[in-house]
Design goal:
about 190 residues; mainly alpha; two-stranded antiparallel ribbon; 8 helices; globular
């Protein structure tokens, strides 16, 4: 997943719903977040998402955001493309890795998605990441950059070319925006 990818956000939202239901049924789930960067060339200083979409993909990509806003609203998720800042997500992935080591990966990932898509936070800015970490309760030194780079490289070598991708115990992999029911059924089958 990547925290600036709308489909990763919506996919994670559905996964979280499926995981919640599965846990209510007595199932146990551990989510491991694997980093992926949609645009590793984006600078850390960030710039408005709509400007980046327009420059890279044209007006059609900007128009497509209206459709994703509608889909997100049906999911109970607010997307604020007028606020969102496109920035390099490497440091955000390091924060998710640190949070995961502390058992806080799920709330940290969700908060980073919300920070980017709703709050207009630059998820590459060190001060912003520090504030978000504090909000979730993540403490300590960052995960070494080399570890996250190695994980990014491993994800690429595994053949992932887009996100979201969901891998389950037993080897089943689902790519793309899946329904909550499909994710829940796959959790049940994998459990």
């Amino acid at each position: 997943m990547d925290v600036i990818c709308v489909w990763s956000y919506l996919g994670y939202n559905r996964l979280a719903g499926a995981v919640s239901r599965y846990r209510e049924e007595g199932g146990e789930v551990t989510i491991s977040f694997r980093p992926y960067q949609l645009a590793p060339d984006l600078p850390s200083r960030g710039e408005p998402v709509l400007d980046v979409l327009r420059k890279r993909f044209g007006e059609g990509a900007v128009a497509e955001t209206d459709r994703t806003v509608e889909i997100a609203a049906e999911e109970g998720v607010e997307l604020r493309y007028d606020r969102a800042v496109a920035a390099n997500t490497f440091e955000a992935h390091r924060l998710i890795a640190l949070a995961s080591r502390q058992g806080l990966g799920e709330p940290m990932a969700e908060r980073l998605f919300r920070a980017h898509f709703e709050d207009g936070v630059n998820v590459a800015a060190p001060d912003a990441l520090s504030e978000l970490a504090t909000e979730i309760g993540v403490t300590g030194a960052s995960v070494p950059a080399d570890e996250v780079r190695a994980d990014l490289d491993e994800v690429k070598r595994s053949g992932v070319t887009g996100v979201p991708v969901f891998r389950f115990d037993g080897g089943r992999t689902l790519a793309g925006f899946q329904s909550t029911e499909t994710l829940l059924d796959t959790l049940r089958e994998s459990g």
